[in-house]
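From the pipeline queue, job 12 of 40. The input is one protein chain; the requested action is below.

Action: predict structure.
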Amino acid sequence: MRIRVAGVEDDPERLFDLLWMLAPDDDRPDPARLSAAWNAAVTQAGRAVFLAEAGPDLVGTLDTIVVPNLTRGARPFMLIENVVVRTEYRRRGIASALLEAALARAAEQGCYKVQLLTNSKRADAHLFYEKHGFARSARGYRHYL
């Protein structure tokens, strides 16, 4: 297995197929819109989309962004989103490897914290993140538009 940061040359359709596991009811964007979103994501300052590959197969991903900050000595923080591993590849350390790569990047960037949200009903995910040093903290809120 190999963990790497995605680039513009990567195929957004291949990644979207994997991300669809998170939101299978989502409409598939037209290719032009998907391509534009992909280019914006992988070229955005502070952003890194990590990919886990097993041979030619894309088996996992995790999206990060380092956010500039004015508190905590003006040290940035990292947000993590869209963590997914293909069902048939779960429990093989792939999510752990992705998370470790993100945490290493956060440390390299001088982040004072790494933050993420997970579905309140996903007890397995809660245990996974706690195993990796994350602590439950403030109650999270979302406002979808």
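Job complete. The chain has one domain: 2-131.
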